[in-house]
Amino acid sequence: MALLTEIKNFIAYKRLAKERKNILVYSEHGGYTNNFLPIINVLTQRYGQSVCYVTSDPSDGFLSGAPQGVTCFYIDKLLSLFLALIDSPICLMTMPDLEVFHLKRSVHKVHYIYVFHALMSTHMVYRFSAFDHYDTILCVGPYQMEEIRSRENKYDLPAKNLVEAGYTRLDCIREQYREYVESRVEAEGKTALLAPGWQEGNIAELYAEEVVASLLGSGFRVIFRCHPEMARRRPDIMERYDRLFGNEPRVFIEKFAGANDSFFKADVLITDWSGVALEYAFGTERPVVFLDTPRKVHNPRCEELGITPFEVTTRSQIGVVLEVQERAKVGETARNLLSQGTAYRERITALRDRYIFNLGTAAEKSAEAVMARLYPPVACCRFMPSP
Fold first, then answer.
1. 31-44 residue pLDDT tens
2. Please, are residues 28 and 95 in contact by the beta-carbon 8 Å criterion?
3. Does residue 220 sit in the same domain as residue 302?
4. CA-CA distance, 68 to 48, in Å (whole number)?
């Protein structure tokens, strides 16, 4: 979109009546719509709020059809200036590292609320100061609260409002999966979903051809789900797999990872360190085969907290971890997991129920937290007490 469009949107936002921009949502790209939409729906439909939705993705679906009560703006090249001048009392974002790089807090009084877009821990895959400049964090589980409070204590940081929110995307996956199971026609054979992350040394970079061959050899159909960042940063890799598998009817390459259809069709997931593993397992109650590629570490000081990340401790509980030298066994291992489906379902649901807040009501709890900050006497939510 042209710069002129951004300028017009910038001016239109500033001219909005105050009551129409009390709540601003910023989305880096359209893939995060599923994280925000349930919260937005509660804010607009239950609480009668108007919401400003700002996106830097020209293909974001909200730009062509926003829900009632939502005013959309496209801001990309002017983003740093725009964010520095927003005057909405509340700003929700999925973007870590606020104030760390070029994107700063507003010069106006704004309460910043962080919305997680993954179920992973806060101190390994995110940078050192990823959440330090947010006022409220909508935590998905107790492990994130423990990590953030431990960090505040260790580095003498101001205490943030930590809300027992839950994870809206997981609620959506679970609901959609139930609907899928009720309506599906049982297919012949089994399907494996290969969904690597985009960290250095991931499956797509190095091992996808062998992993797909192993799965095909074990009788699976394969959905190869490309991570959006991988597609953007390394289009050459995806072009290579297009050539390799383009004529193989048992392999489907999914280039848009925003939909959940492949989650529901797959009987087992194959991944490395992608956060999709927890969403798949907790959303569908089915197991995961992990190829133990190098960890995704964006905070080299993560061990200073002395807390093992959630995505590390849960790997062996929701599936099986294979060394990269064992990649030829992926298909056989996946078959073995399917034969233990009931045992894994029980283990996964117990883990999910223990570690994820407010299953089924995350949007409501998150919206309550927003309203508690917007109108403190009207709404209430539970905050973890400061240490």
1. 888 899 999 999 99
2. yes
3. yes
4. 10
Kindly tell me if the per-residue pLDDT of 140 is higher than 50.
Answer: yes
Report pLDDT digits (tens) over 258-280.
568 888 999 999 999 999 999 99
Residue located via tokens 């007490």: 385
Task: Give residue 202's domain range.
Answer: 174-355
Q: Count the Cβ atoms, other than its own, within 10 Å of residue 312.
A: 13
CATH code, domain carrying 156:
3.40.50
Length of the chain measured in residues: 387
* DSSP element (H, E) containing 181: helix 168-183
Distance (Å, rounded) from C-alpha 332 to C-alpha 268? 12
Per the DSSP assignment, residues forming a β-bridge with 322 are 291
| 307 and 374 housed in the same domain | no
Question: What backbone torsions phi and psi does residue 165 show, to the nearest 5 degrees?
Answer: -95, -50
How far is 250 from 234, CA to CA, in rounded Å?
Answer: 24
In this structure, are residues 367 and 175 in contact, taking their beta carbons and an 8 Å threshold?
Answer: no
Amino acid at 359: L
Q: Residue 381: pLDDT above 70? A: no
347 shares its domain with 367? no
DSSP string, 41-69: HIIIIIS---EEEEES-TT-GGGTSPPTT
Tell me: do 111 and 231 sit in the same domain. no
Considering only CA atoms, give the Rg of the chain: 21
DSSP-assigned states of every residue in 137-148: EEESSHHHHHHH
Rounded Cα distance, 232 and 55, in Å: 18
Rounded Cα gap, residues 182 and 154, in angstroms: 49
Amino acid at 110: V
Rounded to 5°, angle at Cα 371 from 97 and 133: 15
Whether residue 303 contacts residue 333, with contact meaning beta carbons closer than 8 Å, is answered with: no
Would you call 152 helix, strand, or coil by DSSP?
helix
